[in-house]
């Protein structure tokens, strides 16, 4: 047998062996429907399944409780560093605004992509050896659950904390409650308003949970990504029009590179800039808090669309919206990883183009049919 043919079959054999171990961790990801919106009980169950089926990669933590006592739970993704180096941190959260269902859908999609590809993607494997990635699919659990009650509650945005004295209006805009120029611009002190910022910075347990947990690892955290909708924007600090991030130019450059990657998939344009530049001034956001405490890269993704459906994005747009958002997030994560660890991109395996096509087709069939 010629060496080239033997080499190809050895490569296929390696992929089969890798795939066998990969499929062991794919049961929930193959069954779970990532093109549908899921209520909170299904998301909690899915998180348990992902952790149980991927013990070498995934762990979980309850790092806070909501006003109504529900768990705020994250999934942590990371591999052991082979050289024993200190690992850095990437933070991602979704669902801080209850009605933005595409955001939790994306966090679930992001998890699926990591779990199903890290064993066959050398670059991703390398990044997971250097980084711990923390993902919270839903921060505003109370509000998210409330949006599932019926059609009249579907557009609820805020948390579900009890009204202040003299008011009958529930909830606080959690993305106006962080300790970042709190209460200065783009907020309301009327508890009935959607942008009500609360009685004081950190008055809400959901915001405090994030600040306390992330605050303990600021020195290790490279990037803070918070996912919202809608508008197709990549927002960078700060929401206050008179304050600029010290690394503003780099934030813009990295954001524009991410937007370019996103556009390649489905032609959707994402605008990059600060909130005052391309949306409206605001204060008390988690993005601004992260940059103020010293996390160098902090972004808000505002996913699809630009107004036709807004927060009621149809399920048939979940897949393309998540595909483009994943490309953008991965672009940013790769940049901050390579900048920190001084490593270039790992080239693809040195096999011919025909072999790569055959191999890709094989993997698609294998992962689609599964193992009986």
Summarize the structure in words.
The protein is an alpha/beta fold and 372 residues long. Helices cover 42% and strands 14% of the residues. Strands 1-2-4-3-5-8-6-7 form an eight-stranded mixed β-sheet, sandwiched between helices. Strand 6, helix 8 and strand 7 form a beta-alpha-beta unit. The C terminus is likely disordered.
Please describe the biggest sheet, giving its number of strands, its sense, and whether it closes into a barrel: 8 strands, mixed
What is the first-to-last residue Cα distance? 32 Å
Helix fraction bin? 40-55%
Uncertain runs with pLDDT below 50, 5 residues or more?
Answer: 344-372
Number of strands: 8
Query: Helical segment tally?
Result: 12
Order of helices and strands: HHHEEEHHEHHEEHEHHEHH
Instruction: Supply Rg.
Output: 21 Å
GO molecular function: carboxypeptidase activity; metal ion binding; metallopeptidase activity
Pfam family, one: Peptidase_M14
InterPro entries: CARBOXYPEPT_ZN_1, Peptidase_M14
Keywords: Carboxypeptidase, Hydrolase, Membrane, Metal-binding, Metalloprotease, Protease, Signal, Transmembrane, Transmembrane helix, Zinc
Keywords summarizing the entry:
carboxypeptidase activity, eight-stranded mixed beta sheet, 372 residues, single chain, alpha/beta, transmembrane, 42% helix, disordered C terminus, CARBOXYPEPT_ZN_1
Draw up the topology in text.
Blueprint: H1 3-24, H2 27-31, H3 40-53, E1 58-65, E2 71-77, E3 88-94, H4 102-117, H5 122-130, E4 131-136, H6 141-147, H7 205-215, E5 221-229, E6 233-236, H8 248-266, E7 271-274, H9 275-278, H10 286-292, E8 297-303, H11 318-341, H12 353-369
Parallel strand pairs: 3-4, 3-5, 5-8, 6-7
Antiparallel strand pairs: 1-2, 2-4, 6-8
